Amino acid sequence: MHEVPHLVAPVGIDELAQHTVPFAANELLALDIPVMLIPGVRNQTTPSWENLSGIDLMRGEETQAVGLLLGYQPKLPCILIELGSTTKLISINQQGKIAGSITSLSGQVYAAILKQTFVAASVATTPEEEAQAKIEPQIIDAACQSVQESGLLRTILMSRFLQFAFPTTAPQRKLFLESAMAGDDINVFINAQHQGFNFHGEIFLIGHARRCEIYQHIIRQQLKIDSPQRIISDEQQIDLLAITGASAIANTLRTLR
């Protein structure tokens, strides 16, 4: 495989195209179609043991960012919050360039909790319960408060204790656990603000609808950010962001050659 170095932010579609590496059919992979490797983006920072908070990078999300800019044409600057295996905040500056990112591992940690810990038994829900589950602001706020007072790890365990010490349903306990993961990401938002991310413009939440709604509540009620928020939760629309972005980068590359 060919290595393509990350570009240093700020980076726009032209820079991404200029550093994209094209390959003919069957040149890189056993595929009868051309292949293009698009570079990722890393933050502009001088890392040291005393200054680790500014370190961050992306590989793949840059195509989603370009796709969103082209497909939704947001007022700039804006913030993208991608909620998948990670929580990734992406700052888009006034010029429509990726200015930086900050990421946490919340999505993968949540998945590991459900797969590898006894907490999973206390938050297991049926499809019927999932369909009827509601977003309860009181539970979200309680989880955030617990994270602030007792830390994330004890709050995760609290999801188990609730089953035996407090009259709750499995969907409520699951919401509490999900909200704890999101509540811990409050530190990510605070860190982003310290790094100069502009939260006064439009905020796009991209991911599963329920998770987006939890973060939407936390942004408004816990962080007191009242900027307009848009949720993109349809799987096809999310896929289309990356497809649109990658296609635009490829087309720009062709015009530059």
TrEMBL record:
UniProt GO MF annotations: 2-dehydro-3-deoxygalactonokinase activity
Pfam families xref list: DGOK
Domain of life, source organism: Bacteria
Keyword Transmembrane among record annotations: no
Alphabetical UniProt keywords: Kinase, Transferase
An annotated GO BP: D-galactonate catabolic process
Name assigned to this protein: 2-keto-3-deoxy-galactonokinase
